[in-house]
Protein backbone atom coordinates (compact mmCIF):
# COMPACT_ATOMS: atom_id res chain seq x y z
CA UNK A 1 0.00 0.00 0.00
CA UNK A 2 2.82 2.43 0.83
CA UNK A 3 4.38 1.85 -2.61
CA UNK A 4 1.15 2.92 -4.35
CA UNK A 5 0.83 6.20 -2.42
CA UNK A 6 3.74 8.04 -4.19
CA UNK A 7 2.36 6.89 -7.56
CA UNK A 8 -1.06 8.30 -6.65
CA UNK A 9 0.50 11.66 -5.68
CA UNK A 10 2.42 11.77 -8.97
CA UNK A 11 -0.75 11.18 -10.96
CA UNK A 12 -2.59 13.89 -9.05
CA UNK A 13 0.29 16.32 -9.60
CA UNK A 14 0.12 15.90 -13.38
CA UNK A 15 -3.67 16.15 -13.39
CA UNK A 16 -3.56 19.47 -11.53
CA UNK A 17 -0.91 21.04 -13.81
CA UNK A 18 -3.19 21.29 -16.86
CA UNK A 19 -4.82 24.63 -17.62
CA UNK A 20 -8.44 24.44 -16.62
CA UNK A 21 -11.05 24.50 -19.37
CA UNK A 22 -14.58 25.36 -18.31
CA UNK A 23 -17.57 24.91 -20.59
CA UNK A 24 -20.71 26.50 -19.24
CA UNK A 25 -23.78 27.31 -21.31
CA UNK A 26 -21.72 27.27 -24.49
CA UNK A 27 -19.02 29.59 -23.13
CA UNK A 28 -15.42 28.40 -23.17
CA UNK A 29 -12.98 29.92 -20.73
CA UNK A 30 -9.38 28.85 -20.88
CA UNK A 31 -6.59 30.33 -18.80
CA UNK A 32 -4.92 33.15 -20.72
CA UNK A 33 -7.31 33.05 -23.69
CA UNK A 34 -10.31 35.11 -24.73
CA UNK A 35 -13.83 34.02 -23.83
CA UNK A 36 -16.16 33.16 -26.72
CA UNK A 37 -19.72 31.91 -26.73
CA UNK A 38 -20.13 28.77 -28.84
CA UNK A 39 -23.15 28.90 -31.16
CA UNK A 40 -22.48 25.63 -32.98
CA UNK A 41 -22.02 21.91 -32.60
CA UNK A 42 -19.33 19.96 -34.45
CA UNK A 43 -19.16 16.42 -35.73
CA UNK A 44 -17.04 14.34 -38.10
CA UNK A 45 -18.91 12.00 -40.45
CA UNK A 46 -17.98 9.89 -43.43
CA UNK A 47 -20.96 7.56 -43.38
CA UNK A 48 -23.28 9.23 -45.87
CA UNK A 49 -23.95 8.93 -49.59
CA UNK A 50 -21.17 10.54 -51.60
CA UNK A 51 -19.98 11.02 -55.16
CA UNK A 52 -17.40 8.72 -56.75
CA UNK A 53 -13.70 9.20 -56.09
CA UNK A 54 -13.20 10.38 -59.69
CA UNK A 55 -15.91 13.06 -59.42
CA UNK A 56 -14.53 14.18 -56.03
CA UNK A 57 -11.00 14.57 -57.44
CA UNK A 58 -12.31 16.59 -60.41
CA UNK A 59 -14.33 18.82 -58.07
CA UNK A 60 -11.26 19.52 -55.91
CA UNK A 61 -9.11 20.16 -58.99
CA UNK A 62 -11.69 22.60 -60.40
CA UNK A 63 -11.63 24.55 -57.13
CA UNK A 64 -7.81 24.34 -56.97
CA UNK A 65 -8.21 22.62 -53.60
CA UNK A 66 -6.53 19.30 -54.37
CA UNK A 67 -3.52 20.07 -52.14
CA UNK A 68 -3.61 19.58 -48.36
CA UNK A 69 -3.40 23.35 -47.93
CA UNK A 70 -7.08 23.84 -48.83
CA UNK A 71 -10.53 22.59 -47.84
CA UNK A 72 -13.97 23.30 -49.26
CA UNK A 73 -16.53 25.08 -47.09
CA UNK A 74 -20.23 24.46 -47.90
CA UNK A 75 -23.22 26.35 -46.59
CA UNK A 76 -26.11 23.89 -46.75
CA UNK A 77 -29.63 23.92 -45.29
CA UNK A 78 -31.32 26.74 -43.41
CA UNK A 79 -29.92 29.86 -45.09
CA UNK A 80 -32.71 32.19 -46.22
CA UNK A 81 -31.04 35.36 -47.48
CA UNK A 82 -28.73 36.17 -44.59
CA UNK A 83 -25.64 38.28 -45.15
CA UNK A 84 -22.64 36.07 -44.35
CA UNK A 85 -19.03 37.18 -44.02
CA UNK A 86 -16.21 34.62 -44.17
CA UNK A 87 -12.71 35.76 -43.22
CA UNK A 88 -9.40 34.57 -41.90
CA UNK A 89 -6.18 36.30 -40.81
CA UNK A 90 -5.33 36.99 -44.46
CA UNK A 91 -8.55 38.94 -45.06
CA UNK A 92 -12.12 38.60 -46.25
CA UNK A 93 -12.87 35.50 -48.34
CA UNK A 94 -16.56 36.09 -48.99
CA UNK A 95 -19.26 38.61 -48.13
CA UNK A 96 -22.72 38.23 -49.54
CA UNK A 97 -26.28 37.00 -49.27
CA UNK A 98 -26.70 33.23 -48.91
CA UNK A 99 -29.83 31.30 -49.98
CA UNK A 100 -30.32 27.54 -49.71
CA UNK A 101 -31.51 25.89 -52.93
CA UNK A 102 -34.54 23.83 -51.89
CA UNK A 103 -33.84 21.15 -54.53
CA UNK A 104 -30.15 20.54 -53.83
CA UNK A 105 -29.95 21.56 -50.17
CA UNK A 106 -26.85 23.64 -50.94
CA UNK A 107 -26.44 27.39 -50.55
CA UNK A 108 -22.83 28.40 -51.27
CA UNK A 109 -19.39 26.84 -51.32
CA UNK A 110 -15.85 28.17 -51.38
CA UNK A 111 -12.22 27.20 -50.88
CA UNK A 112 -10.62 28.01 -47.53
CA UNK A 113 -7.13 27.49 -46.15
CA UNK A 114 -7.04 24.56 -43.78
CA UNK A 115 -4.02 25.70 -41.75
CA UNK A 116 -5.54 28.91 -40.39
CA UNK A 117 -8.72 29.64 -38.43
CA UNK A 118 -11.72 30.76 -40.48
CA UNK A 119 -14.36 33.02 -38.92
CA UNK A 120 -17.94 33.07 -40.22
CA UNK A 121 -20.24 35.92 -39.20
CA UNK A 122 -24.02 35.80 -39.71
CA UNK A 123 -25.26 39.41 -39.77
CA UNK A 124 -28.90 38.41 -39.12
CA UNK A 125 -28.19 36.56 -35.86
CA UNK A 126 -25.04 38.57 -35.05
CA UNK A 127 -23.26 35.32 -34.26
CA UNK A 128 -19.79 34.08 -35.16
CA UNK A 129 -18.69 30.53 -35.73
CA UNK A 130 -15.13 29.33 -36.12
CA UNK A 131 -13.53 26.65 -38.25
CA UNK A 132 -10.44 25.54 -36.33
CA UNK A 133 -7.36 24.29 -38.23
CA UNK A 134 -7.07 21.19 -36.04
CA UNK A 135 -10.58 20.11 -37.11
CA UNK A 136 -9.92 20.70 -40.81
CA UNK A 137 -6.45 19.15 -40.96
CA UNK A 138 -7.76 15.61 -41.45
CA UNK A 139 -10.90 16.49 -43.42
CA UNK A 140 -11.36 18.00 -46.88
CA UNK A 141 -14.97 19.17 -46.68
CA UNK A 142 -16.76 21.37 -44.15
CA UNK A 143 -20.56 21.50 -44.19
CA UNK A 144 -22.42 24.21 -42.24
CA UNK A 145 -26.13 23.87 -41.60
CA UNK A 146 -28.32 26.44 -39.88
CA UNK A 147 -31.35 25.48 -37.80
CA UNK A 148 -33.93 27.89 -36.49
CA UNK A 149 -34.04 28.55 -32.77
CA UNK A 150 -32.03 26.95 -30.02
CA UNK A 151 -28.88 28.08 -28.29
CA UNK A 152 -26.64 26.48 -30.92
CA UNK A 153 -28.32 27.05 -34.29
CA UNK A 154 -25.31 26.02 -36.40
CA UNK A 155 -24.09 22.51 -37.05
CA UNK A 156 -20.62 21.97 -38.54
CA UNK A 157 -19.85 18.61 -40.13
CA UNK A 158 -16.29 17.74 -41.15
CA UNK A 159 -15.86 14.99 -43.73
CA UNK A 160 -13.60 13.50 -46.35
CA UNK A 161 -16.56 12.73 -48.59
CA UNK A 162 -18.21 15.04 -51.08
CA UNK A 163 -21.99 14.85 -50.91
CA UNK A 164 -23.87 14.77 -54.21
CA UNK A 165 -25.92 17.85 -55.19
CA UNK A 166 -29.17 15.83 -55.20
Along the chain, the helix and strand elements come as HEEEEHEEEEEEHEE
**β content, as a range?**
35-45%
* Total number of beta strands: 12
- Give the termini distance in whole angstroms: 64 Å
Cross-sheet strand order for the largest sheet:
4-12-11-5-8
What integer is the average pLDDT? Answer: 83
Number of H/I helices: 3
Q: Which ranges are low-confidence, i.e. pLDDT below 50, for 5 or more consecutive residues?
A: 12-31
Given the C-alpha coordinates, what overall shape results?
A: globular
Q: What value does the Rg take, in angstroms?
A: 20 Å
Describe the main β-sheet briefly.
5 strands, mixed
Content-based structural category: alpha+beta
The level of helicity is: 10-25%
Write the layout of secondary structure elements.
Layout lengths: L3 H14 L3 E4 L2 E4 L5 E2 L2 E5 L8 H10 L7 E6 L4 E9 L2 E9 L8 E6 L4 E5 L4 E5 L1 H4 L4 E6 L7 E6 L7
Parallel strand pairs: 4-12, 5-11
Antiparallel strand pairs: 1-2, 2-3, 5-8, 6-7, 6-9, 9-10, 11-12
Briefly, what is this?
The protein is an alpha+beta fold and 166 residues long.
Question: If you had to describe this structure to a student in words, what would you say it looks like?
Answer:
The structure is a single chain. Helices cover 17% and strands 40% of the residues. It is built from three helices and twelve strands; from the N terminus they run αββββαββββββαββ. Strands 4-12-11-5-8 form a five-stranded mixed sheet, with no helix packed on it. It has a four-stranded antiparallel sheet with strand order 7-6-9-10. It has a three-stranded antiparallel sheet with strand order 1-2-3, with no helix packed on it. It is globular. The relative contact order is 0.20.
Amino acid sequence: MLKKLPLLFLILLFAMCKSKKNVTDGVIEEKGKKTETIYYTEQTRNDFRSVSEKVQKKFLKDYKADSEEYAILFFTQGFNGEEITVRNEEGEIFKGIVFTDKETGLAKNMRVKSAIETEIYDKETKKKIYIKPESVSTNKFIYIMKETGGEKPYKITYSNKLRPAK
